[in-house]
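Weekly structure sync, notes
Attendees: PL (lead), two postdocs, one rotation student
Agenda item 3: pending single-chain targets
PL asked that the sequence for the first pending target be pasted directly into the notes so everyone works from the same version. It is reproduced below exactly as submitted, 244 residues in total.
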Amino acid sequence: MANHFIKIIVAVTLTVSCMGVAAPAWANTEVETAELLIKLLQVGRAVISDHQATINDASKGDKGFTSDFVSNQVIERFRKATKIDLSRPSAVPQAPLFLAMVESEKEVIEEAQPVINKQGVGFKGMIPAVFARKSGERFYRKTGIRVKLTGTDYRFPGNRPDDFESEVLRIFADTRHPKGQPYSKATMLDGKPVLRMMDPEYAAATCLGCHGNPKGERDITGAKKEGWHEGDLAGAISIVIPMR
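Predicted structure, written out during the meeting:
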């Protein structure tokens, strides 16, 4: 999908207190902590996106696209992007928080092995959006951190933007807002102080097979295409993180 960090739309609600895990010492602000968690999920989705041809290859059985392969790819790409090496967790303050995301992604791929490796079937349904949603559900159960896909043209009911997200999406759609610039605000949520930050994402060429034209035509997933063009606002990454 869009490629601000990677190709789909995500929203993350952080509630690290339920884990008793503080923001990493090397993350100076809540925004930096949230961005690192987002990046970790995003590189996982990028791995899924880059291997769609392998996943959907009907001629092969065992494709070698295992949970270990995916987690190794995620850790390596995350290291290259952030200089944080999760293969050496003892050197990473609060590594359990980040490794919980990696483990959630591994579990999604492990559960999908029978489908991924089924011969005679082309499209497997393991697309980046589905991978992200399922990884987020598992990550929430482990940590209390919520992951939600959101955007104006949402497909999954749970991806519907809340009032704050809808307003910020309108800001992003305004041509006066600098393209690619995030939006953040300290506010209250459920009676508690939080920092909300949203990062816009835009449709890349690879998005248009499912989300482009002709508008209304069914894509490979069976959903109706939205009629996007390359560069159109696709949604945003929305983060809510408790303030101390």
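Discussion points:
- The longest helix spans residues 30-50.
- Confidence is low (pLDDT under 50) at residues 1-28.
Action: rotation student to compare against the earlier draft before next sync.
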